[in-house]
Amino acid sequence: MEGSRVETSSAAAETPVVISVENIRKSYGSFEVLRGISTEIREKDVTCIVGPSGGGKSTFIRTLNGLEPINEGRIRILDYTLPGWRKETEQLRRSVGMVFQSFNLFMHLTVRENITLGPTAALKVSRDEANARAERLLDRVGIGNQVDKYPGQLSGGQQQRVAIARALAMEPKIMLFDEPTSALDPEMVKEVLEVIRDLAASGMTMLVVTHEMGFAREVAHRVFFMADGVLSVDADPETFFASPKDERHAAFLSKVL
Amino acid sequence: MNFEIQHLVNNYPLILQGLLVTLRICAASLAIGTVLGLVACFMKLEGRGWPYRFAVAYIDFFRTIPEVVLIFWVYSCLPLLFSFRLTAEASGILALSLFASAYLAEIFRAGINSASRGQVQAALALGIPVRVIWMRIIMPPAIRRMMPALISFLSELIKATSLLSAIGVAEMAYQASVLGSKTFAYVEFLSAIAVLYFVTIFPLSLYVRRTNQKLAGKAGH
Ligand SMILES: Nc1ncnc2c1ncn2[C@@H]1O[C@H](COP(=O)(O)OP(=O)(O)OP(=O)(O)O)[C@@H](O)[C@H]1O
Ligand SMILES: [Mg+2]
To answer: What positions does the domain ABC transporter occupy (chain A) (predicted)?
Structure first.
């Protein structure tokens, strides 16, 4: 699957910056979870975020669509700024899709309703158009025949693919994934990674928090290492996995590889 | 002891009129209790600040004192504090509304708290307006989960209306005791209203039992 990597990082460097994170900090009480993170993400970048548990990966990715408010610093995404007014944050979220570890599907709605709710309620897309999108996207993630089922009737892998389709139905410019395969049985991990890999190949800008090092090595243009609330390594995958930058990084690599 | 059905045949309109009053008081207390209960529920959901503290105290207070005491208090003491007099029925409705609001607030709160945080976050992440999240994501499952508790409470409320006979509200139990004392046919009248309470309330219990079984079955697999 080597061919599915979209571009080399040197070519990617010419595309515009779509996310710019400026020295953000976030605390829970007196405990600082994000301790001054800055970075820039360019259009079509596929960035994997790895690191030890509790390092702040989830918190970081959730600050990018305003689900976690930040205490200091600033985030610019597309034409939006965080922190910002609620209306602006709502707008931002319509352009930034998110996929959660635990799927978070609407269990009382059918698969179709799960996917059409966002476009109809937030984008004012017509019902026909929303339905067409739902069917097209379900075909794309390989479960076109499940459209009228309830999430509870699907396997974990199928549910996560519905969740991806739900996010894509908003036609986002950026996709955020927080450990999309960690809650899945091993035999279902592949089908979900396949979908994410295709999405990367289609040129979607993506940030993926993951523990799947093989996936990161193969799909990412950049790999971030986050530990103790600091983004301490930002490298292309070859460099990231071959030459550790510091002891923390080396210790992590020796554990996961 | 003989059961003279003739007493019932002669006086059934009064009993039915009493039943009507019972249902009317229930409907009114449920409506007012729902409004007050929603307010208390959202104040308590705030989780802090003075509205929260007020709601906690309010709910604890009206859930703790016996309904009879509340009824007598509203009927006899309220007019002493404020210089106005409510009719017996209005006093009864007010007392039962306060009683209902405290219980309903807790039922509403449990329902809303049972909403999945993850689903709400997913909806927020889609940029769905908060109003729509309430209507489409939070409320429908919350209402479904609240139904058994709401219907159980309705049974309690119907039973509690019989306490209003103590302040002379002409609901069903009052009519039966008045007719009983007039004719000495206590057995006939009290048995008759027992049956009427039963046929009103038992279907509600059946519903609750069925729904709880269904919910338990669902949780099972
Ligand atoms: N709501 C919260 N309140 C208090 N502390 C929190 C909260 N959420 C996260 N934390 C703490 O913040 C730190 C970072 O958590 P985070 O979930 O971002 O880590 P992570 O890198 O995603 O870990 P994992 O790999 O286990 O998912 C942890 O120490 C966690 O305990
Ligand atoms: Mg995490």
So the answer is: 19-253
